[in-house]
Design goal:
- The protein is an alpha/beta fold.
- The protein contains 4 helices and 9 strands, in the order βββαβαβαββββα.
- Helices cover 28% and strands 29% of the residues.
- Strand 4, helix 2 and strand 5 form a beta-alpha-beta unit.
- Helix 1 packs parallel to helix 4.
- The longest helix has 19 residues.
- It is globular, with a radius of gyration of 14 Å.
- It starts with 12 loop residues before the first strand and ends with a helix.
- Pfam families: AhpC-TSA.
- Its EC number is 1.11.1.24.
Amino acid sequence: MKLEPGDAAPDFTLPAADGTTVSLEAHRGKRVILYFYPAAMTPGCTKQACDFRDSLASLTSAGFAVLGVSKDSPAKLAKFVEHDALTFPLLSDPSLEVHKAYDAYGEKTMYGKTTVGVIRSTFVIDADGKIEKALYNVKATGHVARLRRELGLD
């Protein structure tokens, strides 16, 4: 079931690319941009991650933390972080448990075909742990600029 504004954001604790663990609970009191992407080091996912990296200073100064989640292993995420100088946590969810809790995994249509996989999605979570925005089936290119506009940051 898709999450809606006002819903409680499902809590999680996941391993990060740097070997630490990151929980949503640890970010209470701060707004969080949580985004799910299909695979590290693919063209669209790299573009999206680099857009978040390039906007991170302004997002952070506006009070946001950015967290990226994929099904990739921490080792692959570490290569992605190093290769593209990413400056925010990338989290590993190989069991897809967190993806499913956010309804970011399931049936999707690509190029006219229905498949099952990661649904590129972004959630803005408020300081109290409630969903502020739930954006499903987002495009990798231009997504961060759109999000910045919607959040009143441009």
